[in-house]
Amino acid sequence: MPKPKESIWKRRLHEIIYEADTPMGKLFDIVLLILILLSVILVMVESVKGQPDWVYDYLYYGEWVITIFFTFEYIARIITVKKPSSYIFSFYGVIDFLSTIPLYLSFILVGSNYLLTVRALRLLRVFRILKVTRYIGEANKLGKALNDSRPKILVFLFAVLIVAILAGTLMYLVEGEESGFKSIPASVYWSIVTLTTVGFGDIAPVKPLGQFIAAVLMIMGYGIIAVPTGIVSAEYARSTGKKPDLDSDQYVHVNSQACRNCGASRHRDDAEFCHKCGNNLHPEDIVPNAD
Amino acid sequence: MPKPKESIWKRRLHEIIYEADTPMGKLFDIVLLILILLSVILVMVESVKGQPDWVYDYLYYGEWVITIFFTFEYIARIITVKKPSSYIFSFYGVIDFLSTIPLYLSFILVGSNYLLTVRALRLLRVFRILKVTRYIGEANKLGKALNDSRPKILVFLFAVLIVAILAGTLMYLVEGEESGFKSIPASVYWSIVTLTTVGFGDIAPVKPLGQFIAAVLMIMGYGIIAVPTGIVSAEYARSTGKKPDLDSDQYVHVNSQACRNCGASRHRDDAEFCHKCGNNLHPEDIVPNAD
Amino acid sequence: MPKPKESIWKRRLHEIIYEADTPMGKLFDIVLLILILLSVILVMVESVKGQPDWVYDYLYYGEWVITIFFTFEYIARIITVKKPSSYIFSFYGVIDFLSTIPLYLSFILVGSNYLLTVRALRLLRVFRILKVTRYIGEANKLGKALNDSRPKILVFLFAVLIVAILAGTLMYLVEGEESGFKSIPASVYWSIVTLTTVGFGDIAPVKPLGQFIAAVLMIMGYGIIAVPTGIVSAEYARSTGKKPDLDSDQYVHVNSQACRNCGASRHRDDAEFCHKCGNNLHPEDIVPNAD
Amino acid sequence: MPKPKESIWKRRLHEIIYEADTPMGKLFDIVLLILILLSVILVMVESVKGQPDWVYDYLYYGEWVITIFFTFEYIARIITVKKPSSYIFSFYGVIDFLSTIPLYLSFILVGSNYLLTVRALRLLRVFRILKVTRYIGEANKLGKALNDSRPKILVFLFAVLIVAILAGTLMYLVEGEESGFKSIPASVYWSIVTLTTVGFGDIAPVKPLGQFIAAVLMIMGYGIIAVPTGIVSAEYARSTGKKPDLDSDQYVHVNSQACRNCGASRHRDDAEFCHKCGNNLHPEDIVPNAD
Predict the structure, then answer these.
(1) Phi-psi region of A219 (alpha: psi -120 to 50; beta: other; left: phi over 0)
(2) How far apart are CA A50 and CA A58, in angstroms?
(3) Cβ contact (<8 Å) for C233 and B228?
């Protein structure tokens, strides 16, 4: 079997699996997307007790079909990629591996429920397919806005956590075990349920003082829920809104051109001399490529 | 019966039914609005069990009055419109049809509860009447802001859904059936109840580990509730807030054209004479290129 | 008794009661504020059952003290104001009257609980006193932002209400009476509880289909809670933020001055000649009243 | 013992305790941070009932270790600071003192639960350590945004409180004791639970009229939750969003310094030569006053 022929076959397979520009590549992505969603639905349906036996039979057959497809896909991905090791240990490589093995593992770990979670992880594979769609641009903007506000949100969540711990300790003392505030961790759990306005009601204060403290906590939560919203809102508006005003009196656009004399860069777009060494930036009168 | 006479009669009816400029047209809209709201109230009252028989009698008579009015109205709409077929299969044509038939259908489908939902759909007809009010401009702005942010909100909701499925699977394993997490779908339902901060409390974690995961999930929900708000807020601000109203009475767009006589610039786009020296800005009658 | 003397006495009393610039006026406001808050606390404490008799005795004496003070104050307000009738039928006049009468009414309407609500209405009087504080500027800004967004919020709440009625009807059919969805009004109540993310949990879906519809409703509520927030946020930012930049290069302030020659208006504030006909706008060198 | 030697020893200790620039200072901060978090975890674990005795033993030993460390640290802080009295009565001085004494107090106040809250207050010490991290800048921005919106949020919360009291009184009359609305304070507590969308469900209206009022209250809460969010969002955007990032790669801060040769201004803050004519901006080596 001549080497070049195999190479073409590999390249075509690589195109189909890793790209979405060809009709075959698109078809592959759609089939994969359907199988992933199907496999998650299988997991969900399987967890519902009290169904007739034939349902479980079909679910088992379905899981086999999906596992076989994923096995072939996983092997094909390893074969067609240039550096298999970098794929195998990449994020999606690990997810692909975990998506493939649950059924094989079930022969070893008989009756283990934890394989269910592993099977649910297949859902993460959806993101790779979505990467090639038009929604990914939006997702990136969202991700950027969230990322930009991360330190602020972390500070905020940390403050919320401290309020929750202090309020939880206080409620544990005020309400005590008989009202459901069994321990400080349970009270802190209640504080978080309350501060986030979830309010399950499985634990609720019954003493007037406890209800008063709870009311204060809720109004605080109401007042501070505004903070992360305001942060993300402002960050998002900034990241998608206009660039900083070019007409502002305090800022000017700089480019990456480097001075030939001293190497300093980030000159004003209309600079004619280096701001660092005074060297003429354009001895031959070549206008720099602004922006 | 001469044709032109009928035509005038039809045109008047069309005016009354489809427009709201004439006193009769306004009266018709108000009567229709009252009947729609009344019909929905009838549906609601009818669903309340344990009332004396005469109440149900009156509700039945009321439904007949409304159905007869709607029947005549539906026929009148078909007669007076130029292309009946395009009306019949339009959104409001279908709604009008569905609003008319429940009582007739009740003779065929005896005792069917589902006619109640059909009758509640009459509420959608309210939107057509509101179209001619001043509120529709606001609704359009809102709709535009929501529409502009749709891809972002879809990406966001999709991410929320994946978090809900993964968290639901995890909670199903951790808490199990005895805590109310009966199956993965039920656990996912709980995750959505928690992430959206609704928090019914019909299902609630009881194990420390489950409460810990729930607390993390809630704080995540608290942190990410900011995202759609931030998006809509920014989109809305952009769609309505960007430019000072061109229609405002206090501001007008000016251009950079300079007066040939005195050099003053920033004239109104429609200026014909300089506001500084009174020089004719367009002696050759060349219309300036407004914006 | 000479007329002018009484007039001075009346004017002083008017100053004390209606104004807060003099020390006596400030003192009066503070005493009134304390009595109002005290009277509301009395109402609250009185509603708590199972206290010793002497508590109720003291509450009764306290109510007498407050009622006598309010009676004198109400009479003084009527005497000192120029047009008593316009005060009596104003918003605060009615509130003042209602604040005064509960105890007197209690002799006629023995045992009526509804006097409690009337007594709680005294709280509204606090707003009049707060009017003279520094917080009123902030409250006005807030009120303006809310007022500006009113039509949008009304459209939004109306849409929410229609969603709630349709979802409530659907849930009534799906879940039925045995799950707590006793009637369509009760189901609509549940829909509103869910859409607003309050989530009491007194009624909760138990069937898988009902839970699925509830999940969709919650995610919708999660997605659309952003709308009013975005609106108020943008309106507030607009109302408190800068005016459209006067320094911008593209817009200029215009006034309502009309050209005497051609009648064209909306000239630049610094215009000396009409932009439409070139007529000198200020032949007598009278500077136009800008803004 | 010579004075200077002690002074150096003190200065070194001061550096370690109060600063974080030296390796020893950083190590000290990390150890302190771990001990604080550990001490709070100890409090939490201790509150969980039903653990084996040896757990309580270890918790007791752990508390001794932490108390001894805190005692030495507190003494060291007093010794090394210049004015001990101003430290002792500062906010962190009091927190440090309260962090140290619980175990000693437990010999006097045997079995007092309230020492638990005092021990939880140790958490507040974390803020001092975080002051030296990069997150404090973010926290300051957040704090500033919250501080700027404080009067608005206070006005808002006051209005919410009045709505809660009036609605609570109304619900007390409508629902009465048998539905859980035992007294007006309890009803106000329920109003706050509802308005803030927490919705425990421990108290819930059962009468149709009560459910209707509750629905109105919830929709009001839904409509007005937008207000604090809008305020903080706008304030935050204003306080942080105005100026573009100084660290951005594309923009650089320029100052108003003018070139003595050609008069060109808006040079980079660190410019040494004019970007227009190449003239040395600082022939006398006078560093320009940046920013």
Answers:
(1) alpha
(2) 15
(3) no
Among A157, A181, A218, A236, the strongest candidate for a mutation testing the D interface, having the largest count of D CBs within 10 A, is A218
CA distance A60 to A67: 10
The model's pLDDT over D157-207, given as tens digits with 9 standing for 90+, comes to 777 888 899 899 889 988 988 888 988 999 999 999 998 888 898 889 999
Distance separating alpha carbons of residues A190 and B201, to the nearest angstrom: 12
CB of D290 within 8 Å of a chain A CB? The answer is no
On whether any CB of chain C is under 8 Å from the CB of D177, the answer is: yes
* B248 Cβ under 8 Å from any chain A Cβ: no
Candidates 3.30.390.50, 3.40.50.1010, 1.20.120.350, 3.90.1170.20; correct CATH number of C5-131? 1.20.120.350
Mutant choice from B275, B276, B282 vs C, greatest count of C C-beta within 10 A: B275
> Is B201 an interface residue toward D (CB < 8 Å)?
yes
Asked if the Cβ–Cβ distance from A152 to D138 is below 8 Å, we say: yes
Average pLDDT, whole number, for chain A?
Answer: 77
Closest residue on chain D to B48 (Cα):
D208
Nearest to C72 by CA among C31, C123, C127, C115: C31
- Cβ contact (<8 Å) for D44 and A183? yes
What pLDDT digit, counting tens, does each position of C169-182 carry? Answer: 889 988 988 888 98
pLDDT tens digits, residue range A4-63?
A: 556 788 888 888 887 767 788 888 888 888 998 899 898 888 888 888 889 988 998 999
Residue D251 DSSP SS3:
strand
Structure token pair of residue C244: 């459209």
Q: Which residues pair with residue B70 across a beta bridge?
A: none
Statement: residue B248 has pLDDT above 70: no
Residue type, B280: N
Query: Would you kindly state where each structural domain of chain D is located, as residue ranges?
Result: 5-131, 136-239
pLDDT at residue D1 in the model: 43
CA distance A130 to B181: 31
Residue B196 confidence (pLDDT)? 87
Taking the Cβ of residue C160 and every Cβ of chain D, the question of whether any pair is shorter than 8 Å is answered with yes
Confidence band for D67, pLDDT divided at 50, 70 and 90: very high
Does D200 contact chain B (CB < 8 Å)?
yes
Q: How many CB pairs under 8 A join B and D?
A: 11
Predicted pLDDT of residue D19? 73
- Closest chain C residue by Cα to residue A237: C234
- What's the fold here for domain B136-239? Helix Hairpins (1.10.287)
